[in-house]
Amino acid sequence: MSVTMQQMELILEKIAPVRFAEEWDNSGFNVNFHNREITGIMICLDVLPEIIEEAEKKGCNLLISHHPLLFRATKRIDSERYEGKCIRMLAERGISLYCAHTSMDSAPDGINTWLADQFHLTEREYIQDGVAEHFYEIAVHVPCEHADKVRRAMTAAGAGRLGEYEECTFNIYGEGTFRPNEYAHPYIGKTGEMETVKEVRISAICSESDTERVLRAVRAVHPYEVPAISVLRTEEPKTLQSGLGIVGDLPQRLPVREVLDRLKKILQTDSVRVAGDIEKSVARIGICGGAAGDFAEAARKKGAELFITGEIKHNEYAARSEIILAEAGHFDTEKCFCRIYEQGLQKCLDDVNYNIAIYVTNLRRPYVNY
């Protein structure tokens, strides 16, 4: 089955939705040749001329990278410089470029979750909360004899789900009054006469994504021409759909040296830079791939005794306060992107029976050596 770029974009949104990305970021399509059939996909960490050539040789016309090619505002395209050269090569070969940067950092199954999983962290919380799905209270007034039917319709459409509980509603009984005018077609009562009806106000919490479906279900079974429905957004509960960085508890308190040895093994790297007392032991750590040294203080406030990231600036080391910092390299903390994204994409393609070849480029070593 042929798959177009537009169809592929819908699939890519399931893995790391662009709405999860930071405002300053440029996740999503950097180069897009619309309506073309996908011939193959290559996944990489960075867009490089040799990777574009590799994609062409393997018959791929969609390149997916972690780091955007067009990151900051581009004022000119110079084919002799890095960005311009890559854009020219992509255009000449008809290769589209999609970037999953902070969208993949923040995704529930993204880079930081993978890093946290390697340490089996529990009691997790995001260092910086991302996109939150709010809940709404939907309330409707209905004649008592129709209450069960309306209540079942509401809960079947998704209302009344709180944690491990379902069909949670609150019911207030009272009397409703109304007077139909000459144009009305009342279910109960007569034109021009005041009517009093025994009614119940049924209310239930509903997630933002289910709200429209619940409202349609209520209107479909409600006996009144114009049912009285109110929708109010709640402050609690709310569900975090994404977030940057993770703080969590180790399975047991460990010496810092042991945590760092494990880190090197996980990342398959020879060295990490550390600031702080490495003779201590820690129970709670923070972790965030890439350049996240500015998250150290926020991680400390959430109880982290050790913060691991890929890149830390001089002033961030200087501002360190009662927390051990470990700098494991931008490349090494994010190279897991390629395999994680490949697995997520393959699952999505399998779910819709799309048969497209996916390649992961041979990972280069970091641009600097120690």
UniProtKB/TrEMBL annotation:
SUPFAM superfamilies: NIF3 (NGG1p interacting factor 3)-like. A divalent metal cation binds at H66, H67, D105, H330, E334. Pfam families: DUF34_NIF3. It comes from the Bacteria. One of its GO terms (cellular component) is cytoplasm. InterPro entries: DUF34/NIF3, DUF34/NIF3_bac, DUF34/NIF3_sf, N-reg_PII/ATP_PRibTrfase_C. The keyword Metal-binding applies. Keywords: Metal-binding. One of its GO terms (molecular function) is metal ion binding. NCBIfam families: YbgI_SA1388. Belongs to the GTP cyclohydrolase I type 2/NIF3 family. This is GTP cyclohydrolase 1 type 2 homolog. The lineage of its organism: Bacteria, Bacillati, Bacillota, Clostridia, Christensenellales.
